[in-house]
Amino acid sequence: MNIQQYMADVGRQARAASRAMARATSGEKNAALGAIAAALRAHRSAILDANQRDLARGRDNGLEPALLDRLELTPARFDGMVEGLEQVVALADPVGAITDLNFRPSGIQVGKMRVPLGVIGIIYESRPNVTIDAAALCLKSGNAAILRGGSEAIDSNQAIAECLRAGLREAGLPDTAVQVIETTDRAAVGELISHPEFVDVIVPRGGKGLIERISAEARVPVIKHLDGNCHVYIDADADPAKALKVAYNAKTQRYGTCNTLETLLVHAGIAERVLPELADQYRQAGVELRGCERVRKLLGDQVAEATEADWEEEYLAPVLAIRMVDDLDQAMDHIHRYSSGHTESIITENYSHARRFLAEVDSSSVMVNASTRFADGFEYGLGAEIGISTDKLHARGPVGLEGLTSQKWVVFGDGHVRQ
Amino acid sequence: MNIQQYMADVGRQARAASRAMARATSGEKNAALGAIAAALRAHRSAILDANQRDLARGRDNGLEPALLDRLELTPARFDGMVEGLEQVVALADPVGAITDLNFRPSGIQVGKMRVPLGVIGIIYESRPNVTIDAAALCLKSGNAAILRGGSEAIDSNQAIAECLRAGLREAGLPDTAVQVIETTDRAAVGELISHPEFVDVIVPRGGKGLIERISAEARVPVIKHLDGNCHVYIDADADPAKALKVAYNAKTQRYGTCNTLETLLVHAGIAERVLPELADQYRQAGVELRGCERVRKLLGDQVAEATEADWEEEYLAPVLAIRMVDDLDQAMDHIHRYSSGHTESIITENYSHARRFLAEVDSSSVMVNASTRFADGFEYGLGAEIGISTDKLHARGPVGLEGLTSQKWVVFGDGHVRQ
């Protein structure tokens, strides 16, 4: 297979399909999603069989247990995946909405219409459920999609791809509107990210290394989801009960997610009142603590010494760094220096401190008296998300259907000309 | 001068200043703009003298008359430039606006807050007025700016830069919030576009070649303003009077602007009724016509033969390509193939055709019965613009203050944790 030729064909087909998708009605797009769900259910055993082949090959190739787990489609996961697809049917269609339509002094009426981006390329790991999630969000937002999943999931993905094509055809939409790359050749990724004439935006989903590499090499804009080195700052004027509750939840509710707390900042004036109890709770949950000198002085030797690397790290594990600070500015300076710009929360009853933290902390989500774990498309009401952007341009924070669209200006006149 | 070191210093200072700018109040920012205007007025003759030195050097170096014209600050232009700066004071400050603030089932309250992008790098030609325009828009939107103007304007720009610094200091803002690069070394541009740690977005203003080169090499996101190959389509159901008025205005009101009509598409069913009269008007205005075979058959040999290159070209001159089409789909296919995605307009009284054209034409501005010349930040009510984006991501069409900002999610809780 000539990869360049193959990817150019895929790209051209996607570009052509994107025009049909852009004018598809909400009814047609929903019909396609429904038909895809039906096709997936009808081919359930074939897809699970394909997944078993992927798993067997993965085991033979010595794939790590964590990766095998992500690769696996259990019957329950399969059903959840199809239900997720059907939930996208219920989401409002963002395409075509016209906002800010106003008359100008010249007499023209100017507004903005929400429109699809065009062709979205998604590069992800060996998680077959992402194939469905990504396809559903791209279709609903009127885009064409080119999906490149991890090579270990190739059989699962191809089995799912057949259902995608069948559902699209049944709804009268081009079955090239979602294309799943049929080769495991890595050169396909290089091609996918190099042709702005075929692809409007790349959404990489995976580890930081993958995303940094793609961002560095891409000739197409990238919506990045980098790491989540999230902070909670317990202000001097915090309500201790809220501080305990939020700081505990933000760290322990789930360890492996990007919105999990990684460094806790505590004002020196409240440290004695909250830290010992909080440290007990963390220890009972099995969280390893690493503190600055002042924190260790307060909590004793059970707390390991935090080094510069601890302030920088996204643990994604039951480990927490803790630092004592003297005021809000020191807390914000720490965040400014070490945060990855994902999510930060202040715990305070002080009106002015809350306002300053909200205004001055430059992260995709900034919270007051709430757990960082809320930074999520479902919790924010987007219905679904394709990722959480740590970029500032275009889409920031959880990216749902709207993040996969753009706006164009529309002008209504009546023979108006410029003077 | 070590360019790398110099640009890293500039970058670090800009990044530091961006934090102060992000928290600056509207009052402080407006005070700085006012103080800059006063400083410019106070140093009027020094700036005009510096501009005379640039002009003299330009003439010695054989600069083309058109470039010398753009470089020149006549007293009238100078005054217009300062007035433009003062108009930015009157614009609403986009920063801090919170929208879509709603309670979620979990009890948290989620919204979006508009925030500055951070540091904006602007690369432009030898037009000293752009130094003021760009500085004013970046300051008002709470950003720090690094300005790199054309080397021919170096003396003018440095004289203006002194006033920028003085005005910022007077308002109590860091005078590094707007930095004008002090070297004409081209390596400075390479540095400016290569450091995402210092610069959040690059806005190149200039010819297509400059913008394509910067886009290809930049490691920082670029808001692009490429060419404007704009179309007007006269539908079979057009009101002939409106068609004549709009098509004439779109071509002749100004020739050198990006929103000027470059290819006119005319439905075969109305061509005889509008084209001969329109062609007469164009000819009287001195516009050279180049047509497809059917247009030449109708209008005669005075119309030159249009080649493939004519459909692709942005003339920026009194030249117009004309093509006859058989229906709306043919017109949209032509636009899809040749348009640069800037601005297209349909002239029609047909409701369904207007709706289809609006929905399906994928350009930054899509119009019905209005001249393409309206595609402009002032006409759209943005107050001012830093350029017109032909990108789909982040900012599309005229880019005003809002295009120089981003949004972050804000969450208000009361000790809320995720279950």
TrEMBL record, chains A, B:
Its EC number is 1.2.1.41. The keyword NADP applies. SUPFAM superfamilies: ALDH-like. Keywords: Amino-acid biosynthesis, Cytoplasm, NADP, Oxidoreductase, Proline biosynthesis. Its main location: cytoplasm. It is an enzyme of class 1 (oxidoreductase). It is found in: Cytoplasm. Residues 12-285, 311-376 form the Aldehyde dehydrogenase domain. The keyword Flavoprotein does not apply. PROSITE patterns: PROA (PS01223). Coiled coil: none annotated. Pfam families: Aldedh (PF00171). It catalyses: L-glutamate 5-semialdehyde + phosphate + NADP(+) = L-glutamyl 5-phosphate + NADPH + H(+). Pathway: Amino-acid biosynthesis; L-proline biosynthesis; L-glutamate 5-semialdehyde from L-glutamate: step 2/2. Gene3D superfamilies: Aldehyde Dehydrogenase, Chain A, domain 1, Aldehyde Dehydrogenase, Chain A, domain 2. GO terms for molecular function: glutamate-5-semialdehyde dehydrogenase activity. Belongs to the gamma-glutamyl phosphate reductase family. Catalyzes the NADPH-dependent reduction of L-glutamate 5-phosphate into L-glutamate 5-semialdehyde and phosphate. The product spontaneously undergoes cyclization to form 1-pyrroline-5-carboxylate. This is Gamma-glutamyl phosphate reductase. It comes from Alloalcanivorax gelatiniphagus.
